[in-house]
């Protein structure tokens, strides 16, 4: 039922298909891909990955505490190439595509030493004073002295970029993520006395863990700087990125667009396309992006030449929650980046009210740019279950049989990761 009254609306076209495929067993053997999750937030659950039915989990790093964890999990169970996925059965325990990035919720922990005047001077004698200056500049409203005292001494952004570059060098398939912009979040309050030793030891530190929220936000221009530095690294190395955007669709689009400005693709008119077809002259090339004039470099995962660019080649807008009009903005043929849209039960269908909006967005999403994700923080059966639910939902709305849907989304996923 798509409307609360049960009336058939235009949005219900996929309803019959949904009913039909609900009864079908789920074809796990075709390979269900999870485009975005956080299993290293619950390290004891990682042992369950080998027994999961999903074929690939794309594990995001977000903050200081999880970068090395994602690296170590990937070192044991990584996927090294597209051929790896094809060559091994769904039961393979090699299921991991790692992703390294710094989430906007933690962006205040960096000072930007890559451009302009830094908000923190590492050579200054009075570290506490510099720390207060940094947090006063990047947080809003002005933080209290107690709150500043609870925050770490900020790190230079350049050191994180260097660290991420070497992690990406080690793993030729790794992505950059989770990165992005979030206007809605507020920093959690410091742990109150005696509370921290009682926290759940199974959880990787650094997350919110039920703490109350403070009134403090990270100023958007600071979030944009941290995001852009990571997008540039992805562009330089030719890696895909996984992006988070909450109440920030306009700012996020502008941040991405500022990087590809001047590199927009020439949009060939229908008439010109027809003339080309009639003249049988082939303007295309077997080389990727051969028309944009960048020097070439080897793309190790694909064994294809890759030319460094100021923007990433492929972007996934994870748990995309914008309206269809916003999706259209990203689909302009002039944009030189392939932009994918990924959907999760936990965000996109977290309330009954979101269902009708979701149907419209799935219908508007091009078939070849659609991805599915769990966005869960624990590996295991529940992750398989939410993935299955979302695959079934999407297939129902698109009118795809499950076999067709899984094959399509698997191809989309592989194109997103490997290019
Ligand atoms: Zn996430």
Automatic annotation (TrEMBL):
GO molecular function: hydrolase activity, acting on ester bonds
Bias (Acidic residues) ranges: 279-292
SUPFAM superfamilies registered for this protein in UniProt: Metallo-dependent hydrolases
Record-linked Pfam families: TatD_DNase (PF01026)
Region of interest called Disordered, as start-end residue ranges on this chain: 188-210, 278-310
Domain of life per record: Eukaryota
InterPro entries for this protein: Metal_Hydrolase, Metallo-hydrolase/TatD-type, TatD-like
Biased composition, class Basic and acidic residues, residue ranges: 293-302
The protein's name in its UniProt record: Cut9 interacting protein Scn1
Source organism of this protein record: Immersiella caudata
């Amino acid at each position: 039922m798509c409307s609360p009254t049960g009336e058939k609306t235009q949005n219900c076209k996929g309803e019959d298909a949904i009913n039909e495929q609900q009864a079908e067993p789920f074809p796990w053997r075709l390979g269900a891909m999870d485009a975005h999750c956080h299993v290293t937030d619950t390290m004891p659950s990682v042992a369950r990955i080998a027994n999961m039915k999903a074929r690939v989990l794309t594990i995001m790093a977000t903050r200081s505490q999880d970068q090395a964890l994602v690296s170590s999990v990937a070192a044991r169970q990584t996927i090294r190439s597209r051929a790896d996925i094809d060559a091994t059965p769904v039961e393979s325990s090699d299921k991991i595509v790692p992703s390294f990035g710094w989430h906007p919720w933690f962006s205040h922990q960096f000072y930007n030493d890559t451009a302009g005047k830094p908000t923190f001077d590492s050579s200054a004698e009075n570290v506490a004073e510099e720390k207060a200056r940094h947090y006063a500049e990047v947080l809003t409203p002005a933080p209290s002295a107690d709150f500043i005292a609870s925050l770490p001494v900020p790190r230079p952004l350049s050191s994180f970029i260097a660290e991420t570059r070497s992690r990406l060098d080690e793993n030729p398939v790794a992505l950059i993520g989770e990165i992005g912009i979030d206007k809605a979040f507020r920093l959690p309050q410091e742990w109150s006395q005696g509370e921290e030793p009682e926290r759940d030891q199974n959880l990787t530190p650094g997350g919110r863990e039920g703490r109350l929220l403070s009134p403090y936000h990270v100023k958007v221009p600071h979030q944009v700087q941290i995001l852009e530095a990571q997008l540039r690294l992805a562009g330089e190395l030719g890696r895909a990125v996984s992006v988070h955007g909450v109440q920030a669709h306009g700012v996020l689009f502008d941040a991405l667009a500022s990087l590809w400005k001047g590199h927009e693709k020439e949009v060939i008119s229908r008439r010109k396309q027809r003339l080309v077809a009639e003249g049988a002259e082939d303007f295309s090339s077997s080389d990727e992006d051969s028309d944009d004039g960048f020097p070439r470099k080897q793309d190790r995962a694909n064994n294809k030449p890759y030319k460094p660019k100021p923007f990433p080649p492929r972007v996934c807008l994870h748990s995309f929650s914008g309206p269809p009009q916003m999706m259209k903005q990203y689909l302009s043929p002039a944009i030189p980046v392939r932009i994918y849209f990924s959907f999760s039960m936990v965000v996109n269908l977290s309330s009954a009210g979101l269902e009708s909006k979701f149907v419209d967005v799935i219908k508007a999403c091009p078939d070849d740019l659609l991805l599915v994700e769990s966005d869960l923080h624990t590996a295991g059966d529940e992750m398989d279950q939410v993935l299955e639910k979302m695959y079934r939902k999407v297939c129902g709305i698109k009118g795809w049989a499950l076999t067709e849907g899984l094959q399509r989304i698997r191809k989309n996923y592989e194109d997103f990761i490997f290019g």
